[in-house]
């Protein structure tokens, strides 16, 4: 009995550990990680509160790792649209701030589906019971089972983050890493920011993508 409990605890710990890092990542070929002097954290979002919260959360986590980072609110202010700026202006602002890396996060997809919530157990025919008495009982109880079901809407948010090396001579080759993660029905922007940012920073550090 004790052995089963220990194995169960280990399994739970393993699943928890896996869930704290991002599941889908890509690293540029031959890129083995780098120590950046100053990282700019930028979130592409129309929601100022969500953007500020996420940028600050990532910045704080990076600073806890001993890295120099800052949010992008002073570089790209909330009152201006990025698509109104030229690529040259964007590059100039980043380099004027002496940033050698940019960490850009955006929401790329929202998936919605209906999830069945049912408190009744469905037993196959082989178990006998109420379905073993003929087609009338089978039809009646199947309809009863179906209409007792309740459904709720489940939303899955897919976020993507890309890490750019500003000092890369070829701008088109500047992206050195990217990662995606899904958040299912987060309770709010604060919860989503904490969950995703922790996963992001942990992945960057443990993989050696960003080095101290």
Name its key features.
two-stranded parallel ribbon; 212 residues; 2 domains; single chain; 5 helices; disordered N terminus; alpha/beta; six-stranded mixed sheet; Rossmann fold
Provide structural commentary.
The chain is of the alpha/beta class and 212 residues long. It has two domains: 23-114 and 158-211, Rossmann fold; 115-150, no CATH class. It is built from five helices and eight strands, in the order H-E-E-E-H-E-H-E-H-E-E-H-E. Strand 3 (39-44), helix 2 and strand 4 form a beta-alpha-beta unit. It is globular. Mean pLDDT is 79; it is low at 1-19 and 125-131.
Give average pLDDT, whole number. 79
Rg, rounded, reads 24 Å
Q: How much β-strand is present in the residues?
A: 25-35%
| Count of domain modules | 2
Number of helices: 5
Q: Judging by the overall fold, what is the CATH architecture of the largest domain?
A: 3-Layer(aba) Sandwich
Annotation, overall tally of beta strands? 8
Helix content: 25-40%
Q: For the record, give the distance between the C-alpha atoms at the N and C termini, rounded to a whole number.
A: 45 Å
Secondary structure elements and pairings:
Elements: H1 2-19, E1 24-27, E2 34-35, E3 39-44, H2 48-64, E4 69-71, H3 87-96, E5 101-117, H4 135-148, E6 150-165, E7 175-184, H5 189-206, E8 210-211
Parallel strand pairs: 2-8, 3-4, 3-5
Antiparallel strand pairs: 1-7, 5-6, 6-7
Quick take:
This protein is 36% helix and 28% strand.
